[in-house]
Amino acid sequence: MAAQGTVLVGCGAGFSGDRLDAPLPVVRSLVRSRRPAAIMFETLGERTLALAQLARLDDPRRGYEPLLERMLEPILATCLEHRVAILGNFGAANPPAAAGAIRALAQRLGCRAPRIAVVGGDDLVAGGLLAHLEDEDGAPCASHGVLSANAYLGAQPLVDALAAGADVVVTGRVADPALALAPFAHYHGWSLAQREHVAAATLAGHLLECGAQVSGGYYADPGFKDVPDPHSIGFPIVEMRADGSFVLGKADDTGGLVDRHTVAEQILYEIHDPSQYLTPDVVLDVTQVELAELGRNRVAVSGATGHARPERLKVTLGHDAGWIGEAGISYAGPNAVERGRLAIDVVRRRLGSDVRMRADLIGVASVFNDDSGRFLDARASQDARDVRDVRVRIAVAGESRDAAARAGEEVLALYTCGPAGGGGVRSSVRRRIATSSAYIARACVAPSMEIVE
After folding, report:
1. CB atoms < 10 A from the CB of 173, how many?
2. DSSP-assigned letter for residue 236
3. Looking at domain 320-436, which CATH architecture does it have?
4. Residues 6+ apart with CB under 8 A from 141
5. Separation of alpha carbons 93 and 98, rounded Å
6. Which pTM does this prediction carry?
7. In this model, does residue 153 exceed pLDDT 90?
8. In 174-297, at which residue ranges do the beta strands (DSSP E only) sit?
9. pLDDT at residue 402 above 90?
10. C-alpha closest to that of 83 among 204, 165, 164, 185
11. Binning pLDDT at 50, 70 and 90, where does residue 399 land?
């Protein structure tokens, strides 16, 4: 039966590693509303998924969101008690293992056994579908060296999961807005063929997907765009009516800010063409969207329109890009900049011209620096004459772990090999993953949904 009135969907995470205390105020607000409600967790970046695939290959029990249990522990019992659905792409490369972890968590907490849905079909490597990949122009796409290939699924299998009574829906790669579109469609009884409703819910999901980014987090710029109490920033909640009109707010009793400006910024986030934002469920047009502030931290959003969904699905490919080693050392006091420059020169000469190396002098040139070092070289010493402390950062890319580890070895040697006064050496070596995009015909991909109890 379709819901009467509003349906609420809140966001509990906007990326892997988001604040673990953020979901609880969202859930409390959802419960207080006494309306049909869900909370979504968007934790799956492009590289996050490729790294998860590597983790699963190393250990078949891994490959899902590493913070999953800590993320859900504060809210699982409340959500199960009050029928707040949980949807998340925290299944990453191993949704069945994530479902098992959630089941074990519920048992440990003494909750009733949750009804868990596992959504699959996005993993094209497991499905043997790499031969069907295409580039943007429709030409066959090379798949040599691919570690992972995951298609962005739409909302239908998630809607099916909720219709089957799922308390928790665990997915791998789905379009981020689908995590919100699914509960809105389920509770309001919409078909995904109702294009204007799907467009509105997709826009709502787009606003929710990055968590506190829309409630003042990424917006904050002291003195220009001030945000109250950012230390306790509240995560967003959308109230959706059956006609597709909605209001964006945030969790009760939290910091942050929701106004026309924060919402407008998030609408344009990662949208290349505002008239054609491609998702698996609809091509979203936001060019006629209107925003109206209804009061403190409440913005009405209307005017989203939709076009027919694309016939191809986007695919994210993960490639093995070798290893990267990083190391840093600090210099402070008189002539710190010149000592830092000398340290960079020493390491560069030690490694030789055949090694791919980048050097930054944090405090003088880092974010605006380039791999070649031309920007740093162009910064005359007098430009940094008032700089009293710097940190040298060296990064080395290599085909092997040992090759990348040379960054740390050479920086560590600067302790006694000079220049003078270096300290605070830290180093790390990690796998390097590159990502690229491809496409696959929708007809080649078969999404699946299975209830596990």
Report:
1. 27
2. E
3. 2-Layer Sandwich (3.30)
4. 133, 134, 135, 438, 439
5. 9
6. 0.94
7. yes
8. 236-240, 246-250, 277-278, 283-285, 290-295
9. yes
10. 165
11. very high
CA 287 to CA 104: how far, in whole Å? 46
Mean pLDDT to the nearest integer, 335-341: 94
Position 256, amino acid: G
- Mean pLDDT in the chain? 95
How far is Cα of residue 378 from the mean position of the Cα atoms in its chain?
Answer: 36
Q: What strands, in cross-sheet order, belong to the sheet with 277-278? A: 277-278, 283-285, 305-307
Backbone angles phi and psi of 263, in degrees to 5 = -70, -45
- The Cα 431–Cα 320 span in angstroms is 8
Q: Look up residue 312 and give its amino acid.
A: R
Consecutive H or E run containing 70 = helix 68-72
Bridge partner list, 319: 146, 434
- H/E segment holding residue 104: helix 95-109
pLDDT in tens, 350-392: 999 899 999 999 999 888 888 888 888 777 655 666 789 999 9
Q: Which residues have a Cβ under 8 Å from the Cβ of 258 and sit 6 or more positions away?
A: 214, 215, 216, 236, 248, 249, 250, 297, 298, 299
Task: Spell out the alpha helix ranges (H) of 252-400.
Answer: 260-267, 336-351, 374-378
pLDDT tens-digit readout, 197-210: 999 999 999 999 99
Alpha carbon distance 159, 185 (integer Å): 7
* CA–CA dist 95, 117 (Å, integer): 9
User: What is the C-alpha to C-alpha distance for residues 122 and 174, in angstroms, rounded to an integer?
Assistant: 8
Residues of the chain with CATH 3.30.70: 320-436
Return left, alpha or beta for 421; rule: phi > 0 is left, psi -120 to 50 is alpha, else beta: left
Under 8 Å between Cβ of 170 and 98: yes
Gap between the Cα atoms of 437 and 151, Å rounded: 10
> CA-CA distance, 321 to 341, in Å (whole number)?
29
